[in-house]
Amino acid sequence: AHQSKLGFFCKLGYGKQDICTVLENLGQEALEDDVLKELIRMGSKPQALESQAQPSPLKLVARGSCSTSPGSTWLREDDNDSSDHLRPIVIDGSNVAMSHGNKEVFSCRGIQLAVDWFRERGHTYIKVFVPLWRKEPSRQDSPIADRHILEELEKQSILVYTPSRKVKGKRVVCYDDRYIVKVAYEKDGVIVSNDHYRDLQNENPEWKWFIEQRLLMYSFVSNRFMPPDDPLGRHGPTLSNFLSKKPVLPEPKWQPCPYGKKCTYGNKCKFYHPERPHQAQLSVADELRAKIGVPLSLGKEEEKRNLPP
């Protein structure tokens, strides 16, 4: 009997030492239910449960979380292409730099400000496109400021140079706008630019829709990069929803009643009354009766009697 019970509880995953201790305390003829209760009371756990109960060395973070704790490194490694809840960002480097330089200087500082803004929001896929000829020494007709920023962003795999070369002394430049729109379209991301790319819109109807729906314009206020709170207009999505793969719909907000406490519509009023607890849409007469403690049924009978024939 001892061996059979020992074998039975061993199969359940309990340790031999705990089982023997319980059998000695309760006696060899103890029922299996009593032995199990005693094992549980002692705090003994099956080994399979113990292995599950051990704290995981890696802290799991909910998908879509912006947590930057050490335990979330697995999420960042897995989401190198912004496969979480935020859209990939493709920045028109020339447009941003010239806007920050007041259309006179190619200001690399403007590109850095834009990249930092999206980084702080949690975006992991950020690409900036700049023509390769911007690597050449600064000329009087096209001055460039803070060129070292381009080198730093290139090392971080954020900056991408679009090809250009010289043929018989003339510069042949590939169209960088085409790169910007194509990559943003393929990644289902957002284009950051104040350019409308009208030539590319006319060229490809799919790109036309994409540029209309995914173009994020911006302004520079001193050294502050500022996109609009309503990128697609007053009736469009918020900036947060515009930059998210899964937009969050706002909770419906009840419009407060313009008459307030003077409203006589009672439960037929379609507006919100903050003074009515739990939105109990009572008539004004019923509210008064409730205050003085008169049952609603009596009040209704009284109303019926007072009604004209």
Automatic annotation (TrEMBL):
What cofactors does the UniProt entry give for this protein?
Mg(2+)
GO cellular component annotations of the record: cytoplasmic ribonucleoprotein granule; nucleus
Instruction: Please state the residue ranges covered by C3H1-type zinc fingers.
Output: 251-276
**Keyword Calcium applies:** no
Q: InterPro entries given for it?
A: Rege-1_UBA-like, RNase_Zc3h12_NYN, ZC3H12/N4BP1_RNase_Reg, Znf_CCCH
The UniProt record lists the C3H1-type domain at 251-276
Where do the segments described as Disordered lie? 61-80
Keyword set for this entry? Endonuclease, Hydrolase, Magnesium, Metal-binding, Nuclease, Zinc, Zinc-finger
Q: Which domain of life is it from?
A: Eukaryota
The protein's GO terms of the molecular function aspect are: hydrolase activity; mRNA binding; RNA endonuclease activity; zinc ion binding
Family recorded in the similarity comment: Belongs to the ZC3H12 family.
The protein depicted here goes by the name ZC12D ribonuclease
For this protein's source organism, the top of the classification is: Eukaryota, Metazoa, Chordata, Craniata, Vertebrata
**GN (gene name):** Zc3h12d
